[in-house]
Amino acid sequence: MATHAECPVVIVRPAEATENPKARVVVGVDINDISGEAVDAAFAEAALRGARLEMVHAAFHFSEMPVGPGMVAPDFKALDEAALRIMDAEAAQRAGRYPGVDVHTRVPR
Q1: Edge-to-edge strands of the sheet including 52-56?
Q2: Which residues share a beta bridge with 106?
Q3: Using one digit for the tens of pLDDT, what is the confidence trace for 56-93?
């Protein structure tokens, strides 16, 4: 569903996750076109459930990058750090409204 949707998608699992110390809410973040609605919904759900919030920007894996003569690999560390800064800034914009939400940002490859 999320792959083909033209709008933010929210998947909510059963309420049994409420008050679970390992509970988490995960929001995918496209750093080139951030959906404030999706991030807001994720913060609200995390606050409601007392869950940790994970903001994730998925990136290509090294093996997916083309290689060949004359091609230079991008600086993945710099790209990842830039994505983390963008997500941290988005989280900071909501910190006042959701002070109890523990936010983790990551960029898996």
Answers
A1: 24-28, 52-56, 103-106
A2: 56
A3: 998 766 655 667 777 777 788 888 999 999 999 999 99
